[in-house]
Amino acid sequence: MNRGRLITFEGPEGAGKSTQAAMLISKLEARGIEVIYTREPGGTKLGEAIRGILQYNAAGEDPCAESEVLLFEASRAQLVRNVIQPALERGAWVLCDRFADSTTAYQGFGRGFSVELMETINRFAIGRAVPDMTILLDVNVSLGMQRCAKRQVGKKIQYDRIESEALEFHEKVRQGYLELARRFPERFRKVDAMRHAEPIAEDIWKLVSDAFLSQG
Ligand code: T5A
User: Fold this and answer.
1) Distance in Å, CA 97 to ligand 1 centroid
2) Is residue 1 part of a domain?
């Protein structure tokens, strides 16, 4: 049995990661491929509980910046061991909505922790689950935020703890992602996400099918 593929979606807020992951899943499933979709933080019972703490202060107090890093990593370690690694080993493909690069971009470039330290902690959390491809959906901060705001029209839900950070923070995150794409060209594929969903999905399909499905 061949190992499956791990494809991660990254990008700033409102980049369209969930939308594009769903579109890619339909295309892969139409080819008879077993696909597991999951997200970070979350994807396991423990991870979803951590998500509540990180996004909506479920514990009743803000995590300090160091705790924030470790909580994201705890969610990640659990997701890798209980969901991602077993799926890859049985040959399934895993599409993960955010993964380790989110910590490097948000807590490293955004919060200002050492990028090397974030990468070291990421390696501890992910073990062998290194993504085969990371699709960076690049969107400028104002457009991404407009999309998030539009999605919330008529709903009670407000911006979560990290979405509520200043625009400068989100700009550092975006620039951090672009830097990661330059540093790791073998894994990252940058896609212009400031377009309609359909042409973005076509570009992603070409990248994925050329890389993994064209060998026959
Ligand atoms: N975080 C996460 C860290 O700080 N460190 C970490 O290590 C990790 C893992 C997670 C938060 O945690 C932070 C980052 C985040 O702040 P989340 O709720 O999972 O929070 O939020 P996001 O991952 O940012 O996901 P979003 O739901 O905000 O955005 P998506 O998934 O990128 O976008 P999507 O597909 O939901 O689309 C947003 C809206 O835009 C529309 C959609 O219909 C939707 O309404 N849309 C488009 N509109 C126009 N054109 C397009 N091309 C569109 N594509 C989608």
Assistant:
1) 9
2) no
The residue whose CB lies within 8 Å of the most ligand 1 atoms, and thus the one to mutate among 8, 9, 10, 17, is: 17
Is residue 138 in some structural domain? yes
The residue whose CA has the least distance to atom 39 of ligand 1 is 147
| Terminal C-alpha separation, the chain | 17
Ligand 1, atom 45: closest residue by C-alpha? 151
Q: Whose CA is nearest to atom 2 of ligand 1?
A: 102
How many domains does one find in the chain?
A: 1
Mean residue pLDDT across the chain:
95
Mind listing the pLDDT tens digit for each residue in 159-184?
A: 789 999 999 999 999 999 999 999 99
Which helix (H) or strand (E) covers residue 8, if one does?
Answer: strand 6-10
Q: How confident is the model at residue 215 (pLDDT cuts 50, 70, 90)?
A: low
pLDDT tens column, 100-144: 999 999 999 999 999 999 999 999 999 999 999 999 999 999 999
Question: What range does the domain containing 183 cover?
Answer: 6-213
Once rounded to an integer, what is the mean pLDDT over residues 52-79? 95
Q: What are phi and psi of 192, to 5 degrees?
A: -70, 110
